[in-house]
Amino acid sequence: MKLQGIRVLDLSLFLPGPYLTTLMADHGAEVIKLEPPTGEPARRIGQRAGDHSVWFRNIGRGKKSIVLDLKQPAELAALNDLAKTCDVMLEAFRPGVADRLGIGAAAMTALNPRLVYCSISAFGQDGPDARRPAHDLAVEALAGTISVNLGQDGRPTHPNVPVADVTASLLALSGILMALLRRESTGRGDVIDMAMFDATLSWLPNATGAVFGEGRAPVVKHERQWGGGAFYNIYPTSDDRWVVLGGAEHKFVETLLHALGRPDLIAGASGPPGPGHDAARDFLRATFATRTRDEWEAWFEGRDVCFAPVLDLHEAFQRPHVAARQMLVRDAEGHLHIGLPIKFRDEPGTLNPAVPELGEHTASVLAEARRLLAR
């Protein structure tokens, strides 16, 4: 597998860091998860499947769990020895905490110059907001994404997907892989400062037109991607469910409006988003309200239009395409796992469903580190 031979020491908790290291473990990295004596909080959050929470199954699988109390000198020394044998070290403390514990970037890279050291935090290691406490929702609020995530009443609503967490996770993974690649020629690792805030801002290249071009906030209901376009919108159906049109290219507009007997609306629906789309949007809203969601799905079958039914999360995982793509995996014990999204032709990853008990690998991991250092 692509990351076989890469050793990762993961000190992070909850989602951004653990999701990142799960992707690495799925592709062959040895991931050593350092947990506090009380354990990863996700072990205790949400619904359970068997002996573990579903959340922890998704971010703990295929990893080794060790427990160390870093306030104890002997256990801190053990961590230092372990870091000397690793390729990657990941932490997600508030800025300054890792340094106070004696495991900050400067200390760890001095011990191991080949180490790629990555910090994931809400706002980064410097700047006026660096020490401001925040999780995903607060970061999204300050990054402006909540302001464009409006409900039908025009008020900001909960985004319900962890945008800041996962964007930071994926960009941090990219940075780690870049640093490992560069290390092949320089022999040295690097230090990565990944802010969830920075990551969220960076994912807005298609949403900053009004901000950068006209010096103003966007009018959400007039922007194509947020409901300003008739063919990039969400519509209710007769059974109180929903469908979406998800592509505003002229060919899709023409195909659908001809099929519905309203070619007179094509010009407006093909123009710039905003009030010019009102007539087409009103027609489509009234039309979709005449049939059920599933009836519309059957009607659209074979038509070249970007259409989709709005599925609940359970329905989404039951789609035949999910099974075909192996994105829902059942292990030998009957527990379900999200599959591997990165699919290589020659060296595919492998989902290891084993979930470690708290501290299960402490003795064996530290013994292996001592053995490696003694060589």
From TrEMBL:
Keywords: Acyltransferase, Transferase. One of its GO terms (molecular function) is acyltransferase activity. This is CoA transferase. It comes from Falsiroseomonas selenitidurans. The lineage of its organism: Bacteria, Pseudomonadati, Pseudomonadota, Alphaproteobacteria, Acetobacterales.
